[in-house]
Amino acid sequence: MEMDLDEVPEGREMSDADLVRSAREGESWALEALYKRHARMVNGMAWRLMPHDPEVEDLVQDVFILAFDRLSRLENPGAFRSWIGGITIRQAHKKLRRRGLRQRLGLARSEAVDLDRLISPSTPPDAAAELRAVYGIVDQLPAQERVALILRRVEALPLGEIAEQMGISLATVKRRLSAAETRLQENLARVPRHSAKGGRYD
Fold this sequence. Notes:
The protein is built from nine helices and no strands. By secondary structure, the chain is mainly alpha-helical. The protein folds into two domains: 12-111, RNA polymerase sigma factor, region 2, helix turn helix motif (Rna Polymerase Sigma Factor, Chain: A, Orthogonal Bundle); 114-197, Winged helix-like DNA-binding domain superfamily/Winged helix DNA-binding domain (Arc Repressor Mutant, subunit A, Orthogonal Bundle). The protein is elongated and about 60 Å long.
């Protein structure tokens, strides 16, 4: 997506609400400004949810196209960042579900997670070994559990926000997180020299 912001009004930093309102009035520079402001966040979230998927870049583009197409539905223009974050989560969830189905049908093979990008070179060897085990387990979780766990553990979102972003109830979020933690701990119990602790979602 080519971005040219020459037309952006000078003199002040425009808020997301200002940009959304301008975009709704047909100002293309406002869409470009929204993209530049939030592309890094969307890309980072998409990559953390789908770290080894070759379609992550396409997902990011699809998220912005979908968001800009539905911009008139955004009730609070100032909430654009949270809103597009929710779109990213739901689109990633769909892709993860489709990928899991293709793998079960033998139509696609599982790719190894690119751990070199996820684990810092300065991480102590024992901690790195545990992180590798954790990422390997998380990658095998059902899509709905995986997304909820990453939003909680990696993105550090409150339970209520996870429920809102995933479009599910708070009770469902708690069930998915508990199930994911149980699977994680059961599998980590088979890995030597670990100290991970489970989570409760009361």
